[in-house]
Design goal:
The chain is α+β, with helices and mostly antiparallel strands and about 90 residues long. It has one helix at about 45-60, and strands spanning about 10-15, 25-30, 35-40, 65. The longest helix is centred in the middle third of the chain and has 17 residues, at about 45-60.
């Protein structure tokens, strides 16, 4: 068997406030994979989910970092409410 070692990809996250008071987590795995988890009831619940993501990704050798600015690419969500919401 031949094994190919892949370089760990960088993973960034951001937590977004929604107008309805809930929170969404947006995770970007470089170069272009975007994953959303919508509808956390509280910020603490969203942060707990991110912590679980950190553990999982650390096992794969891909550390998770906070994304300070929204991604330049368009948001994959069809909801226009995200565009006017506050990023944490």
């Amino acid at each position: 068997m031949r094994y190919v070692k892949r370089m760990a990809r960088r993973v960034f996250y951001r937590i977004v406030d929604r107008p309805d008071g809930q929170f969404d987590a947006v995770v970007t795995i470089e170069p272009d994979k975007v994953i959303r988890r919508d509808g956390f009831i509280s910020l603490a619940e969203a942060e707990e989910w991110i912590e679980g993501l950190r553990v999982l990704m650390a096992a794969l050798g891909a550390p998770v970092s906070h994304q300070d600015q929204p991604a330049a690419r368009p948001n994959p969500s069809p909801s226009s409410a995200i565009a006017v919401s506050k990023v944490r």
